[in-house]
Design brief:
Layout: E1 2-9, E2 13-19, E3 28-34, E4 37-44, E5 46-47, H1 49-53, E6 60-66, E7 77-84, E8 87-97, H2 106-118, H3 123-126, H4 135-142, E9 152-156, H5 162-169, E10 176-181, H6 184-193, E11 199-203, E12 216-221, H7 233-242, E13 243-254, E14 263-267, E15 272-276, H8 279-288, E16 291-304, E17 307-318
Parallel strand pairs: 9-10, 9-12, 10-11, 12-13
Antiparallel strand pairs: 1-2, 2-6, 3-4, 3-7, 5-6, 7-8, 13-17, 14-15, 16-17
Length: 320
């Protein structure tokens, strides 16, 4: 199931597309909701050549809905969702906010926290306006993990593949790499970019599903866990489930600086959710997930458009 809101013209109209992978030639119903209540339904059956060329069946999956301006009065959020065979789901870019993100009900804050990552943006926007390598992160990993031809690796949020590319460029040995991404388009592009029989990418959510088959030797996540709403505990529990008893996880977190010594906030117009963990919070979260922190270290991932991006890298292992 896939879809996107291409244009919000509030309070007059909204336009986009929605298609069901299980029924590629059958148009689906799109619903518009105001604060969780359905206000309008329509069929996404407008022909769009770009959708047909992209392999979305016969291309009849577009929609353009005229909004009643009155539904916007006093609203907190408008939502556009598709009724797919596997259940209703919010379309990418399918939320329009009338209030600050932190004033939304928790269910919408969770959806908003994933909206940006389910879509697609240019690679440099994922790393503070610059294209990076994974060198400093992989340096830290290599000092705490011995790569072997039998190593099984899982990564959450590979983005444009900077860490995997560095591993491959250095010729570090491994048996299998699995990358979990929320964005279907990014999964497709990564799969084309890294045409290696040992490598595969899948669209999955670390908060609700285990990241990889059991017996993962090395779990990686960089610039990812701070965006998990409301916190990363469910993800850490899934890391524990997937790790081999001798495996390790290497995850970096935002380094608390100045007044940002902990807490949450939403940044930029996209409402990007960020949680900054204090050292005490991290210790407790890993402990609750049955993971033991072996090492913590400050690393610099790279230089963004506004300066160096410093992180706290954590090495953890299952508590035996």
């Amino acid at each position: 199931m896939s879809g996107n809101v291409d244009e919000w013209k509030v309070p007059t109209s909204v336009a986009g597309w929605a298609a069901d992978d299980l029924r590629p030639d059958q148009p689906i119903v799109v619903e518009i909701l105001r604060d969780g209540l359905v206000t309008q339904s329509l069929l996404a059956n407008n022909y769009r050549q770009d959708l047909e060329l992209a392999g979305l069946g016969n291309g009849r999956h577009g929609f353009h809905a005229h909004l009643n301006p009155q539904i916007c009065t006093g609203a907190k959020v408008l939502e556009v969702r598709g009724k797919f065979l596997q259940g209703a789901a919010t379309l990418n870019n399918g939320l329009h906010l009338f209030v600050p993100a932190d004033q939304l009900p928790k269910a919408y804050q969770h959806k908003l926290s994933q909206q940006r990552w389910q879509g697609y943006e240019s690679p440099e926007h994922l790393t503070w306006g610059r294209i990076w390598t994974g060198d400093t992160f992989v340096d830290f990993v290599s000092s705490n993990f011995q790569f072997t031809p039998s190593s099984r690796i899982a990564e959450v949020g590979p983005g444009y593949g900077r860490i995997l590319k560095t591993i491959l460029d250095r010729g570090l040995p491994f048996k299998e790499y699995v990358g979990l991404e929320l964005s279907e388009r990014r999964v497709a592009e990564l799969s084309r970019t890294f045409a290696d029989s040992r490598v595969r990418f899948t669209c999955a959510d670390i908060l609700t599903a285990g990241p990889a088959p059991d017996s993962t030797d090395l779990f990686l996540a960089s610039s990812t866990f701070e965006h998990l709403y409301p916190d990363c505990l469910p993800a850490l529990k899934n890391v524990y489930v997937s790790l081999d008893k001798n495996g390790v996880a290497v995850i970096d977190f935002v380094e608390p600086q100045g007044k940002k010594t902990g807490g949450t906030f939403h940044e930029n117009e996209a409402g990007t959710y960020v949680r900054i963990y204090s050292p005490e919070e991290l210790e407790n979260l890993f402990l609750m997930a049955k993971l033991k922190i072996i090492k913590k270290s400050q690393i610099t991932l790279g230089t963004g458009a506004t300066g160096e991006v410093r992180r706290i890298a954590v090495v953890a292992a299952p508590k035996l």
